[in-house]
Design goal:
Number of domains: 2
Structural class: alpha/beta
CATH class of the largest domain: Alpha Beta
Shape: globular
Radius of gyration: 23 Å
Length: 324
């Protein structure tokens, strides 16, 4: 009896020791076919540009080509639902954004549960953004703008790329933090909002699309919406340097894996993304695309999603922000 028990224990121990080796071997063999990256937004936007720059290099590092598949619509929900419903093949992944996993869920039902249906792989990049005003606004700093806004409640309009976009929430954050009453004017995208700002239809905007016009002297940049100053605009301090923007929040782009993807595969893709983002030519391409490298690995990316989900939920609640 003792002999049979001991022999069985040896067999169980051997099987247990084989499993990690088998998983490791499978991960080392992966990928065995081209990667399929679903981008749930139209071609040419920052999520599309960022994904193509980084993931093409990651594919080269892994020794496979990459198929980019734009499935746009419903603020990223169509592409996300598509990936969620695909059988797990360990080669299909999803581009994600701040809005897709941290913001929209507070405003309307979405067809997936981020924590249940996806695994964070890596945050890749973050868009540069600026708080810009029309030259008619008599303010050269955020403090001067806040004083002007308090003296003219309800008379300053700020444009955004649409209701409940991060370009909208940046303005609402400043309203809440500074105790001012800017009026939100949503547009169908960032470019129309910037055109309205240039024309003086609105007086302020919180967006990446203002940067070329700040550089050309057509708009006045009051603050960078980032943790650090933009290297091309070293004289414009960040919002946080000027005492605001303490609640944080960024317009970032990352990669998710469908639930059920082996963690060893997630780790290998993460390593390839990290290596791609360290390459000087990729850093330059990211910069030229209006973004900066802000890499986070799976655990840190997951934690960041949790923090920003709670933060944006609180802002939406306090600001009584609705889609209609």
């Amino acid at each position: 009896m003792l002999r049979r028990t001991f022999t069985g224990a040896l067999a169980l121990g051997a099987a247990a020791s084989i499993r990690p080796a088998t998983a490791q071997t499978q991960a080392q063999a992966w990928p065995t076919k081209p990667l399929h990256i679903v981008i749930p937004y139209p071609p040419g936007g920052p999520s599309d540009v960022s994904t193509r720059i980084v993931m093409e290099r990651a594919g080269q590092i892994l020794g496979q080509s990459v198929l980019f598949d734009n499935k746009a619509g419903a603020s990223g929900m169509i592409g996300a639902e598509y990936v969620k419903n695909q059988p797990v093949d360990t080669h299909t992944f999803l581009t994600t954004t701040t809005a897709m996993v941290c913001i929209t869920r507070h405003l309307q039902p979405i067809p997936f549960v981020p924590e249940k249906d996806f695994i964070p792989v890596a945050r890749m990049t973050t868009s540069w953004g600026a708080f810009a005003v029309h030259p008619s606004v008599p303010a050269k700093t955020v403090a001067e703008f806040v004083a002007y806004a308090k003296a003219n409640p309800g008379k300053i309009n700020f444009g955004s790329a649409g209701l409940a976009t991060i370009t909208h929430l940046f303005g609402e954050m400043l309203n809440l933090e500074a105790g001012i009453q800017m009026v939100h004017v949503p547009y169908r995208g960032s470019a129309p909002a910037t055109n309205a700002l240039l024309a003086g239809e609105v007086q302020a905007q919180f967006d990446q699309t203002t940067l070329p016009h700040i550089k050309a002297g057509k708009l006045r940049g009051l603050a960078m919406l980032a943790e650090v100053r933009h290297p091309d605009f070293p004289d414009i301090p960040t919002l946080r340097e000027q005492g605001y923007g303490k609640e944080g929040g960024d317009s970032w782009f990352g990669v998710l894996a469908p639930a059920g993807t082996p963690l060893a595969v997630v780790a290998r893709l993460d390593q390839a993304i990290a290596a791609a983002l360290r390459a000087p030519d990729i850093m330059a391409k990211v910069h030229n695309g209006g973004m900066r490298v802000t890499y986070l690995g799976p655990a840190d990316f997951n934690a960041r999603i949790g923090v920003e989900t709670a933060m944006f939920g609180d802002i939406i609640k306090r600001g009584n922000i609705k889609l209609t």
